[in-house]
Amino acid sequence: MSGYPLPLNPFPGFFAVARTGIFWDIDQFKIDAQSNAYSTAQNIRRTLSVAGHLGKVEIMAYGVDDGHDFKEEAKFTSFPAGADTDRHTKMLEDIRVWSSNSPSPSNLFLIMGDSAVDFKPVIESLVSSRHYKIHYVKP
């Protein structure tokens, strides 16, 4: 997320201390070649902190395991190359589970390419049924 400016005051009011879930498709939003999974996840956390977020951050990453070592910075779920449908189905399932365990207000980040359009109905239902702030990050 470094180099990707967040909107002015992305965490107003209670959102600054609210739980934040980050769902990251690393096949569509690749880890920088000069970086590694661990430092990239740390950078995401640092970027949120600098932007004013003080609450708990959970990062869930999904993709082909090319030797990524997130250590304790993110939960990584590996999929074989080309398993886009399976990967996205798992992401949606995890978003639903995470949201059922996350009180309002909460922040939800979706880091992926154009497939985010397919997630809109689920994401919009979260916004309408709960007090969530949704952030879309695209490469």
TrEMBL record:
<dbReference type="InterPro" id="IPR024768">
    <property type="entry name" value="Marf1"/>
</dbReference>
<dbReference type="Pfam" id="PF01936">
    <property type="entry name" value="NYN"/>
</dbReference>
<dbReference type="InterPro" id="IPR021139">
    <property type="entry name" value="NYN"/>
</dbReference>
<protein>
    <submittedName>
        <fullName>Uncharacterized protein LOC108824715</fullName>
    </submittedName>
</protein>
<feature type="domain" description="NYN">
    <location>
        <begin position="19"/>
        <end position="135"/>
    </location>
</feature>
<dbReference type="GO" id="GO:0005777">
    <property type="term" value="C:peroxisome"/>
</dbReference>
<dbReference type="GO" id="GO:0004540">
    <property type="term" value="F:RNA nuclease activity"/>
</dbReference>
<dbReference type="GO" id="GO:0010468">
    <property type="term" value="P:regulation of gene expression"/>
</dbReference>
